[in-house]
Amino acid sequence: MKNKISKAIFPVAGMGTRFLPATKSIPKEIMSLVDRPLIQYAIDEARAAGIKEFIFVTSRGKAALEDYFDHAPQLESELKRKGKTDLLEEVKNTNMDSGQIAYIRQHKPLGLGHAVWCARRLVGNEPFAVILPDDIIAAEKPCLQQMVEAFEENPGNMVAAMEVPAERASAYGILDVKEDMGSVVSVNGMVEKPAPGEQPSNLAVIGRYLLTPQIMKNLNKKQTGAGGEIQLTDAIAQEIEEGRDVFGYRFRGQRFDCGSKSGYLQATVSFALSRPELRDDLMGFLREVVNVEKAAE
User: Fold this and answer.
1) Among 70-84, 114-128, 211-225, where is mean pLDDT lowest?
2) Cis peptide upstream of residue 21 (ω within 30 degrees of 0)
3) Position 2 confidence tier, pLDDT thresholds 50, 70, 90
4) pTM of the full predicted structure?
5) 236 CB contacts (<8 Å, ≥6 apart)?
6) In sequence order, which residues have a C-beta less than 8 Å from that of residue 235 and are 6 or more positions away?
7) How far apart are CA 101 and CA 96, in angstroms?
C-alpha cells in the first residue's frame, strides 16, 4: 500500500429531496453558491490536496453533473470570439481531462458506506479520500489539504472534526477521544447521533475522510447499521476494534451544511460577501433588511 493519496470518492447519488422542486430536474450538486456549483468547490479542494483521480458515485438523473465537467467547444469558441478571456479561463477550469474522472452508478440508496464501496475496484490497494459536497468549508488552506499534510505524519484513517455545542451533538457522529494532541486526536470510537447528554465529546465528524484500503474490506461484509443502511462510520469503528489507528482532525475553517436550506443560504451570503465586486451592494441590502425588521418590531 502506498501512502500518498491521489484518489477521491465523491458520493453524489442522493436525490436532494430537501431542495425540491429545484432538484426535480437538476442534481443538487449543480446548485450554485454565487456563480460556482457546490461540486466545483469540492473539486477545487481536492485538487489543492493533490488529488489526481476523481471518482463520482452517481445515480439515475445525474447527466447534468457529468456534462458540467465535459469540454464545451461551442461555448469556449464564442467566449474567445468575443474576447471574454476571464470567463473563458473560468470555463476551462471546470474541464476534466480524459481519464481523470470516472462515474460509478449506485443503483440502490443503501447508505454512505455502500456508496463508497461501489468505488472499490477503482481505488484498489491505495488510501483514498472521501468528500461530501454538501459540506462546504471556507478556509485559507483548503480542509482536505490540511488533512493530507496531517495524514503524512499520522498514517491511518482520519476524519475531519469540528467542535459543536452540546445541544447540537445529537445531529452528528461524535468522536470518543482517546488522546488529544491538538489539531489531531486519536480516537477510541464514534457514537452516531448520541442521545442528549450522552455524547463522549464535543467533536463532531463532518464530510471529509482519509481512509486506508482496509475500509473497503470492512465494507465488503455489507453489514447494515443505523437505518438499515451500510454505514461508513461502522467500517471505521471496526478499524478501532481491531487495533488500527483512527484520528480526528480539527480543521481550520468555517463549515457550511449546504444539505440544509438554512446552511445553503448562509454559505451563499458568506461567499458573496467575500467577493470584493459584490460585497458593498450586498452589505447595503442586508443592512436595509435588518433596519426594516427593526422598524417593524
Assistant:
1) 211-225
2) yes
3) low
4) 0.90
5) 157, 159, 190, 209, 211, 215, 246
6) 113, 215, 218, 219
7) 7
Q: What is the pLDDT of residue 50?
A: 94
What DSSP letter does each residue of 9-72 carry, written as one string?
A: EEE-----GGGTTGGGTS-GGG-EETTEEHHHHHHHHHHHTT--EEEEEE-TT-HHHHHHTS--
Predicted local distance difference test score (pLDDT) of residue 170: 82
- Lookup: cell for 26: 437538476
Task: For 201-214, write each residue's pLDDT tens digit.
Answer: 889 999 999 999 99
Type of residue found at 84: K
Cα distance between residue 163 and residue 204, in whole Å: 6
pLDDT of residue 226: 65
Bridge-partner residues for 130, per DSSP? 9, 209
Secondary structure element (H or E) that encloses residue 267, with its range: helix 261-273
Name the residue among 12, 59, 9, 74 with its Cα closest to residue 37: 12
CA distance 109 to 226: 14
* Cell reading at 111: 447508505
Using alpha carbons, select from 95, 97, 127, 116 the residue that is nearest to residue 12: 116
Distance CA(204)–CA(117), nearest Å, equals 23
How confident is the prediction for the chain on average, in pLDDT?
89
Per-residue confidence (pLDDT) for residue 157, from 0 to 100:
93
**3-class secondary-structure state, position 249:** strand
Buried b (16+ CB within 10 A) or exposed e, 168-187: ebbebbbbbbeeeeebbbbb
Cβ neighbours around 17 below 10 Å, total: 9
Other Cβ atoms less than 10 A from the Cβ of 219: the count is 26
Tens digits of residue pLDDT in 34-53 = 989 999 999 999 999 999 99
Residue 1 predicted with pLDDT over 60 = no
